[in-house]
Amino acid sequence: MSARLRIAVQKSGRLADKSLDLLEAAGLHVVKGANDLLFRVENAPIDLLRVRDDDIPTFVADGVANLGIVGRNVLLERAKPEDGPCEIMALGFGRCDLKIAGPLGFAYDGPRSLQGLRVATTYPRQLSRFLRENDVEAEIVTMRGAVEVAPRLKLAHVICDLVSTGATLEANGLAAFETIARSEAVLIQSPQPLDPQFAPIVESVTQRFRGVTASRDAKYVMMNAPRAALPRISEILPGSDAPTVTPLAGREDYVAVHAVCQESVFWETLERLKAAGASAILVLPIEKMM
Ligand code: PRT
Ligand code: ZN
């Protein structure tokens, strides 16, 4: 029996379903067997090791898993992030920011405003790095969760926590005033030398993941436009390389323009294209990209 590549994923929580969705979108069919700890990919020699997110960097560092999907915030909270698993690509989901926040009306005027205060967090390492880099001395109160209640309980003056929508801060009468790190789910790889038999699988998985993440926001945009408007139209198209331009039958002055846009195409973009002279504008989803 040939060896199987192991990818550590969060068992349940914010990243669990989206990690499985990513594998499915990459054409890897996950079968949920009787074994809760290991799920099998039926069409590739890959197993999923399903664990708590905090354990993923350690499993990958020790080579128990070859790859892992975890929030960058968890990876950066390791004691020595530089010696551990490395991030090989960002996956575009689970986005959040590690922010410093305090009661509404807190007069924040840069990191020095934190001098001498108590800061509650579940991310003491990243916070202490930030304080050190800014030459600020503050007391770190490490909590396991519910950091947002610390100011109300007078446990701390301010907090340092993950924020995605901001609803939790708002509900607790807090406002954010500094972003110390940006996070999203990332693919990480073991620092141990990769068994050569796994190299082609890792290569294929990462290439497919890149294709899936790149095509998620990407759109195929088609339109007709006056030839003279081409420079303006290329400028408006978000995140596209040189568009494909083809002549229109019987129209000297008009062309068809096709482009792959790597960034979101909003209604405003279409309005600007129209104002630049484009007509019959179509925006199509892209299923796969390589
Ligand atoms: O059980 P296990 O240990 O595996 O899971 P967990 O409870 O430690 O983590 P989980 O499932 O809550 O989060 C997994 C990962 O999701 C995190 O490590 C982040 O990378 C990412 N993520 C994205 C978030 C958030 N957004 C997020 N908003 N993790 C936590 N939050 C919390 C935040 O701590 C705060 O309490 O949600 C609250 C704020 O949310 P908003 O929307 O009100 O701003
Ligand atoms: Zn956790």
Which structural traits does this protein have?
single chain; 290 residues; alpha+beta; D-Maltodextrin-Binding Protein, domain 2; Alpha-Beta Plaits; 7-stranded mixed β-sheet; flat; binds phosphoribosyl ATP; binds zinc ion
The largest sheet has its strands arranged as 2-3-4-1-5-12-6
CATH superfamily of the largest domain: Periplasmic binding protein-like II
The ligands bound in this entry are: phosphoribosyl ATP, zinc ion
Order of helices and strands: EHEEEHEHEEEHEEHEEHEHEEHE
Describe this structure in words.
By secondary structure, the protein is of the alpha+beta class. The chain has 3 domains: 5-93 and 185-215, 3-Layer(aba) Sandwich (D-Maltodextrin-Binding Protein, domain 2), CATH 3.40.190.10; 96-183, 3-Layer(aba) Sandwich (D-Maltodextrin-Binding Protein, domain 2); 219-285, Alpha-Beta Plaits. It has 8 helices and 16 strands. The chain has helices at residues 16-25, 56-61, 72-76, 124-133, 167-171, 199-217, 230-236, 267-275; strands spanning 5-10, 30-31, 38-41, 46-51, 67-71, 86-90, 96-103, 118-121, 139-142, 158-163, 174-183, 185-189, 219-226, 244-248, 251-261, 279-285. The strands form 3 sheets. Strands 2-3-4-1-5-12-6 form a 7-stranded mixed beta sheet. A hairpin with a 2-residue loop joins strand 14 (244-248) and strand 15 (251-261). The relative contact order is 0.14. Bound molecules: phosphoribosyl ATP and zinc ion. The site of phosphoribosyl ATP (PRT) has 21 residues, from helix 3, strand 10 and helix 5.
